[in-house]
Amino acid sequence: MAITVIAPTILSKDPAAYKQIIKTYYPFAKHVHIDVSDGSLTSEVTIPESAVWWPRGWTVDIHMMTANPSQHVDTLIKLHPNLVIFHAEAKEDLLPVFNKLKDNGMKVGVALVKDIYPGSIKSILSAVDHALIFSGTLGKYGGTADLLLLEKAALIREIHGNIELGWDGGANLENTKILTHGGIDVINVGSAIAKSPDPAKSFAALEAETEKEDPL
Q1: What is each CA distance from 45 to 35, 93, 143, 164, 176, in whole angstroms?
Q2: What is the CA radius of gyration of the chain?
Q3: Cα–Cα distance between 162 and 185 in angstroms, integer?
Q4: How far apart, in whole angstroms, are the C-alpha atoms of residue 80 and residue 70?
Q5: Quick one: average pLDDT of 80-93?
Q6: What are phi and psi of 203, to 5 degrees?
C-alpha cells in the first residue's frame, strides 16, 4: 500500500494566531495544508496569501478558496508552495491559471465540493496533479467526513489515472484508515490536531492509522 500523508491544516484569521499554529506544528509536521479564503466563495475570510509563510523544509499545499484565482497568481508564484489548489466552482477559466503556475514549477490541484461531480469537470481533472475531495465547510474547522464522497475517488481516477487524491473535512482517528484504504494520498486534518490537547500525539496516532493494513 502506498504511503498516505497526514497533513495538518492551518486555518487562521489572525497573523499572531497563525504564528502560534506554526510554532505548535513545527516539532512534528513536515507537510501542511494552508487554507486561504478571501470571502468570495464563502463569507469566511482568513489571512491573505500575502501574509502566509512557513519554516524552511516544509512541504506546503495552499488551498485557495476564491472565486477569482487570477487575482492571486502572482503572489502565489512568489511564495512557491508545493501545490496550489483552486475550486472547480471558481468564476474564471482555471486552465490558464494552472498553466502559469505549472510553468513556474508548482503542482496544481482542483477542489471538488460535495455537489461537484467528477464527470462534469473532465478537462480540469485531466490537467491537474491533484484532486481534493472536499467534505467540510469552507473556511471553518470541524467539518464532518461524508464517507460516501469516497466514491469520487474511483471516478476521478477513471479520468486521470495518475492523479494524487486529497481529502479535506472531518478526518479523525475513526475514519483515517478508511480514507487511506479508499485511495486517498493526502489526508488534511484540521480539528483532530488543532483542537487536540496534545497535537503531536494526535498527529502520531493518525499516522499510525494510515499504516494499518486491515481496512476494517
Answers
A1: 10, 23, 17, 27, 28
A2: 16
A3: 11
A4: 15
A5: 97
A6: -60, -45
Q: Provide the pLDDT confidence category of residue 1 given band limits of 50, 70 and 90.
A: very low
Whether residue 206 contacts residue 170, with contact meaning beta carbons closer than 8 Å, is answered with no
Could you give the CA distance from residue 49 to residue 29 in angstroms, rounded to a whole number? Answer: 20
Name the strand (E) or helix (H) holding 22: helix 15-25
Q: Residue 29's pLDDT is what?
A: 96
Query: Is 0.85 topped by the overall pTM?
Result: yes
Q: How many CB atoms lie within 10 A of CB 33?
A: 27
Residue found under cell 498516505: 4
Residue at grid coordinates 504511503: 3
Mean pLDDT to the nearest integer, 85-110:
97
Q: What share of the chain is helix, strand, coil (3-state, %, to 5)?
A: 35, 20, 40
From 140, 179, 168, select the one nearest 45 (Cα to Cα).
140
Joined together, the cell numbers standing for residue 180 give 487511506
Report the 10 Å Cβ neighbour count for 123. 10
List pLDDT tens digits, range 133-192: 999 777 566 678 999 999 999 999 999 999 999 999 999 999 999 999 999 999 999 999
DSSP 64: E
